[in-house]
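User: Structure please.
Assistant: Input sequence and predicted structure:
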Amino acid sequence: MRKHLIIVVTLALICRLAVYATVTRHDRLSTTTPFAFTNIDSPTYDRLGLNLALHGVYSESADPAALAPAAERGPGYPALIALVYRLLGHRPQAVLLLQIVLSSLTAGLVCLLGYRLAGPVAGLAGGLLLAIDLPSVIYANLFLTETLAALINLLAVWALASAWRSSGRRTTLLLLATGALAALSAYVRTAALLWPLVLAACTALHYWRAGKYLSLKSAACLLAAYFLVLTPWVVRNSLVFGAPQFSSGAGNCLLLFNASAVVAARDGISQDQAIDRIGDEARARITGTPQSQFTDSRLMTSMALTIFRDNPALTAKLFVRSFLGTILGPGKGYLSALTTNPAALTAVSAIIGTATMLLAFCSLFVLARNPQLRSLACLILLSLLYAGAVAFLQGHSRWRVPYMPLTTLAAGLPLHRLLSRARPPKESRHPGSL
């Protein structure tokens, strides 16, 4: 197993460092934009981490003399950035290299978890699929939250799968750990705020045959830890902004990145033009009276819901397209930075990505017939559906990257049993415990 683990982590490192080296060699990593790939959110995360490291203030402001508190993004990823900046100075490249290491270790953890659940072949297959998954490789080189969220999500699922195979006090502790890790995932990426409901529902279903009391108690234990860990940030926002909410980013996301897709498709314009149009309308309404970030968010949410309500058929059509794009999309948005012929790389990525996703879905149906892995199969399937749902109208492989370790894990799990049927069994202890 150690040999398999070394192979997976080494391959993952090679793929991610190759992308990093390719981008830096072509001078796409500069002092003005110190990120391997330019993304609209990257400078904001950089400022959040820098202000937190230098001034101890969670602010998006670029002016140290006017550090207004921020609440749109969760503090998990900026806290990691701030830690790196405190230790090494303002070096975004160091954050990217740390992400590359974390992404490679995530592939190794998939290998290890697959081995514990089903055997060495399952672990090796799942780890290798994640090591070469192009969206995961690319986002390890992006100054964004997806890589850290993927690691935390995998650890949460590992803790939950261990809880399902344990008993007594250890089960309770693991359920509490699952809830805490799910909360950390929400701190890193606010799109995961409702994912613990998936974890709790699968936990309740897992224990349902053992009794309704145990089922509800286990789910409540997980959710209690989740809400407990979220509470400090909600209290902070309540004291600073007068709004007991976790994030103020929902309205901006719904209006500018979802409702704009409806407006663009309806009026035959580009989405950038639609964003400019409804953005101007939103700013005109917001600047009329003094508002807090959360009041602005509620206004923008209301505007977005009005657009969805007035265009139900178009919204439903775009949602289906987005859902499929999130689940099966090749992640081609940044391929032009890697090669002068991105079409070929897109084709390869699409083949590998689509094959992995289809294999994962087929594997989930196979796993559903295994009583020991049925609950895990349900959890992974619902997590993928959740990723597609929260993307709403922003269909892109970015939304599935945090759940890609679960996908490749599912794709590899049935392979051990299939291959073991095709060859004589060896006398070895099966690693059936976590």
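The longest helix spans residues 212-241.
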